[in-house]
Amino acid sequence: MARYILGRLLSAIPTLFLIVTISFFLIRIAPGGPFDLERPLEAKVMENLARIYQLDKPLWQQYLLYLKSLASGDFGPSFYFRDFTINELFAEGLPISIQLGSSALVLALIVGGAMGVLAALRQNRPADYSIMAAATIGVTIPNFVVAPLLTLLLGVWLGWLPVGGWNNGAARNMILPIVTLALPQIAVVARLTRGSMIEALRSNHVRTARAYGLSGYSVVVVHALRGALLPVVSYLGPAAAALLTGSVVVETIFGIPGIGRYFVQGALNRDYTLVMGTVVVVAVFVIVFNLIVDLVYALLDPRVRYD
Amino acid sequence: MFTVMRTGLLAAALIASTALTASAEVVYHRGNTADPETLDQHKTSTIYEANVLRDLYEGLTTANAKGETVPGVAESWMISDDGLVYTFKLRADAKWSNGDPVTAGDFVYSLQRIMNPETGAKYANILFPIKNAEKVNKSEAKTEELGVKAIDDHTLEITLEAPTPYFIDLLAHQTGLPVHPASVEKYGAEFVKPENIVSNGAFVLKEFVPNSHIKVTKNENFHDAADVKIDTVMFYPTEDRGAALRRFQAGEIHSNNDAPVEQVKFMRETLGDQFRVAPYLGTYYYALNHKDEALSNPDVRQALSMAVDREFLAEEIWGGTMVPGYSMVPPGIGNYGEPAYADYKDLSQIDREEKAADLLKAAGFGADHPLKLELRYNTSENHKNTAVAIADMWKPLGVEVSLVNTDTATHYALLRDKGDFDVARAGWIGDYSDPQNFLFLVESDNPGFNYANYNNPDYDKLMDEAAATTDLEKRASILKHAEEIFMRDLPFLPLLYYGSISLVSSKLHGWEDNLQNIHPSRYMSIAQ
């Protein structure tokens, strides 16, 4: 098992390298640079800025310099947030995104999973229909609609919860962002669980378990659900990577200092190092979570072995 | 001898008012467009950066609640007869937040620093009126040669290249704010960090968390601290204007310097006086590329201008938050008088359109031989709506417009690099209240701003003449003549004067609408 994990991690290095290389050159194709403002700069000032940020060097040299600093864990200075390095920005923002994302993930798994199981057990009955209708709505309404509606209702009209702001991570400020992040995930998890649960309930091993006279709980939870979770897990891998690295929409609407916004801010401001930093972080998360998914497979499905 | 003597009387008067409310901490929650790129005043260029820096630092001159320039660290000044030498007397009680006195040497250091090309100051050129500033900034002279000299700790002498009537206003701009030399020497670029920063304004920096907030607290060493009623200001970046409105409605922020224009009706109805629109020192315009063959014909440019229904744009597209614009220089500006309006300002829209159609026809364009134009704008819902509306207004004249939308960086990079375009959206907010700050945009030796590639020696000559004129009335009439030429030649097509839109809670006192939209927190108070 350890050998397998090590092998996977090693094989991730060329993948990462490729991602870094492609993104490095892609972002440079975008017209304009980090210092193009509505107010143009004096040529001399532009020259000095370029020198300070090493943009005056040939592109291949910049690329090698970036790789070198990246290898030592240094993402470089931000071109837009000039008082911060990318490492400082991530040190501040990433824990916040992870905290919100993981809470949303757990919420989605518990609520969505329970809804899916319930729907499967009550297949083609009113409970099933209403859960699936709710799930369809959950998937189709985008979060930039849900978030303002929730804040209007619970923040502005009822005054129960704050409309925005992080407030140093106060629980009250986290509720709405977590719910907004979790809603579409709940819907997807519910649909996936329902589908695979219906299949599992009809499968031979569950029928056998029933025939042996096992209790309903044991049949559903131990025998059916375990197998039924496989598609959910494979969905949750990439979904978790996306959730934990923050959401532009949710962070902007609720005024949360996570790293989700940096993707867009970096791209729009031509903050090359910030874009590269977010790309690397997201790539690492995707790689790690795909590995975790494969490991969880082995736990859930006895047929999967990594020896 | 032409002398200006102004003394700060404010400080002495209100020392007794300190013991009013000793109880709860007064926190002003303030929405502010976006996060600063940096809090290093010399490297900033935007309005939302100025809003924070104005609270942290005080320049030689500063702004009062009405946005007017008043004495700051300098309590008085004298101007030589030729208008070239300014001698500032610094107030004795001006202190840095660590207790150090603010000296003339600090300003010498700061002005040399911003001009030093090594600093990479984006907006150094605004201070080019100072003697040798441009040369220093272009590495053609040593920093010591800059026309700024400390006579003693409390006397500062600044020599200018040419008489500059707006120089006193200029010093209140964020580029004129001092840095604490010892901190800059000790920490380098890190001097802006909350743990290192030393400032001389009404507030000091405590926290800067990007995308969350900037927290500043009252500076007890500020010479007018007795008068500052706010203990803490929390600045929030409010990029999402809809979200900012909801936070305002919920009472989480006391003010925001923008609001969703598409909800103007709703805001007027529900917020009443808390929704504010005030004239603003800015012009929204379209640059017309004079290198384009069709657009090089002045009649074509005039026709395009006449056919735009500016009232419709201001009312329907911008919800009354902008004002129809018939001149490049916005009305109400200092050192000027009435701007030079387009001569069709008082014609009805129908008459204008008729005239425009005639002009274009005479130029050889019409339904069977359409004038094809590419109109470029940077991403924004209202820029798009404006462009669509204008394309529609031009259509009956036989103008076929294709719209091209790009993000802001791409848009301005194309204009800067003299890329190929016909018509491009742009806007200009004045840095100081003087017509020169609008008319210099299209001088032929100003390639960075002269998107139109306008080149008129007569215009340049008038601008040079104005720069050398000390008599304010005479100068105003020269500049007005220049603007008349501008309106005849139309390098830019002025469309609207900006309005400033703000949400201001009825609990927040001391926010006074003004042309420059400057609102220092030190003059505000909050009713509990």
UniProtKB/TrEMBL annotation, chain A:
It is a multi-pass membrane protein. Keywords: Cell membrane, Membrane, Transmembrane, Transmembrane helix, Transport. The keyword Transport applies. The chain crosses the membrane at residues 12-30, 96-121, 133-158, 170-190, 211-233, 239-260, 272-300. InterPro entries: BPD_transp_1_N (IPR045621), MetI-like (IPR000515), MetI-like_sf (IPR035906). The keyword Cell membrane applies. Pfam families: BPD_transp_1, BPD_transp_1_N. One of its GO terms (biological process) is transmembrane transport. Residues 94-297 form the ABC transmembrane type-1 domain. SUPFAM superfamilies: MetI-like. It is found in: Cell membrane. It comes from the Bacteria. GO terms for cellular component: plasma membrane. Its main location: membrane. PANTHER family: DIPEPTIDE TRANSPORT SYSTEM PERMEASE PROTEIN DPPB-RELATED, DIPEPTIDE-TRANSPORT INTEGRAL MEMBRANE PROTEIN ABC TRANSPORTER DPPB-RELATED. Belongs to the binding-protein-dependent transport system permease family. This is Oligopeptide ABC transporter permease OppB.
From TrEMBL, chain B:
GO terms for molecular function: peptide transmembrane transporter activity. Keywords: Signal, Transport. Residues 69-446 form the Solute-binding protein family domain. It is found in: Periplasm. It comes from the Bacteria. Residues 1-24 form the signal peptide. One of its GO terms (cellular component) is ATP-binding cassette (ABC) transporter complex. GO terms for biological process: peptide transport. InterPro entries: Peptide/Ni-bd (IPR030678), SBP_5 (IPR039424), SBP_5_dom (IPR000914). It holds the Pfam family SBP_bac_5. Belongs to the bacterial solute-binding protein 5 family. This is Peptide ABC transporter substrate-binding protein. The lineage of its organism: Bacteria, Pseudomonadati, Pseudomonadota, Alphaproteobacteria, Hyphomicrobiales.
